[in-house]
């Protein structure tokens, strides 16, 4: 384990996060989370609403630091957002007044890169994400799937070795979602990123991940940490896929029920 930790790209150690919710009440969103993520691993955080997936991702991103515990990326403590950790949100965080190419170029311009280098990177990413015909469009004139391609290209432009993705495909229809999952797998295997990907969807987690971390509902802890060794591209209709889907379904259902009971209890108190 120590060897694994020394080699890990991201290390989360003893992380807890407590939110004060007013009236002296507290929510323990995360409790004693420990994870060592090797370079290049594709990790999915899976669990029902409220189990702390986004809280954990935001802590790794440096947006909201843990109450206790430490997170390191490449051996460096995470104390703020940084260029080595790119984030893709569910809601496409694009600038509506900028074209596709300007959205992708934005981070590079901030970094002060020369114009020719920016142009070369943008062209490469437009081709990689099949956006070349859309470079002059504005976000409002794009479908949800296309917008999310631009959001991914924007993070890739910064060349972050770590990609943090918070339900990035949650708002897309099934077909577009599968297309983007396939694109992401292709990009991941080509660029060798380390990815932490939050999802509610068991099928999405099995389709994408090397490793699935199932979380418990309040306090958010690690319920199960599963390595997925099914060959890629995975077949959602396959027997092994479905056996794992059933196993994970059971685990997630238990936590969903705890969520449900908690809501009933809180409603009774109010
Ligand atoms: N800023 C905050 N203040 C108070 N409580 C919070 C805050 N952010 C999150 N929480 C609580 O912490 C718990 C974990 O929330 P979090 O959003 O991380 O869960 P999640 O698993 O990502 O859920 P979802 O899938 O719905 O986004 C929830 O009970 C939530 O209500």
TrEMBL record:
Organism domain of life: Bacteria
Pfam families: ABC_tran (PF00005)
Example GO biological process: quaternary ammonium group transport
Presence of keyword Membrane: yes
Keywords, ordered alphabetically: ATP-binding, Cell membrane, Membrane, Nucleotide-binding, Transport
GO MF annotation terms: ATP binding; ATP hydrolysis activity
Residue ranges occupied by any ABC transporter domain in the UniProt entry: 10-242
Transport listed as a keyword: yes
Family as reported in the entry's similarity comment: Belongs to the ABC transporter superfamily.
Name of the protein this chain belongs to: ABC transporter ATP-binding protein
Organism, as annotated: Pseudoduganella albidiflava
